[in-house]
Amino acid sequence: MPEFRDSRIGIRNASLMLGVTVTELREAILSGSKIHGVTPPKPLFNAGQRKSEMMFKAGDIMDCAENIQAISNQ
User: Do 71 and 39 form a contact (C-beta atoms < 8 A)?
Assistant: First the structure.
C-alpha cells in the first residue's frame, strides 16, 4: 500500500482515521497537545482559499492511528 501512504489527505479524512473530530485534531495541532496520548503529525501545508484546510501525508496519519491503537491496548 505504498501509493496510499504517500498520498495527501485533508483534515476531515485524517480526523476520521484518528477517531477524533476535526476540531479536536485542529486544536491539538495548533496548541501542540496530544490526541489520546499521541502527538498528531504536522500538516504538510494549508490549502484552500483561506489557507485553512490542512493537508497531511496519509502514511503519517496511519502511523499516528497505529500509535493511538497501541496505547489503548495497553
Answer: no
Enter the pTM of the model. Answer: 0.86
Question: What pLDDT, in 10s, does the model give residues 16-44?
Answer: 999 999 999 999 999 999 999 999 999 99
So what's the pLDDT on residue 51? 67
In which residue are the cell numbers 485534531 written? 25
Please list the residues that pair with 46 across neighbouring strands. 54
**Count of CA atoms in the C-beta half-sphere (13 A) of 62:** 12
Give me the DSSP letters along 17-70: HHTS-HHHHHHHHHHT--BTTBPPPPPSEEESTTS-EEEEEHHHHHHHHHHHHH
Handedness of CA 72, 19, 11, 35 (dihedral sign): negative
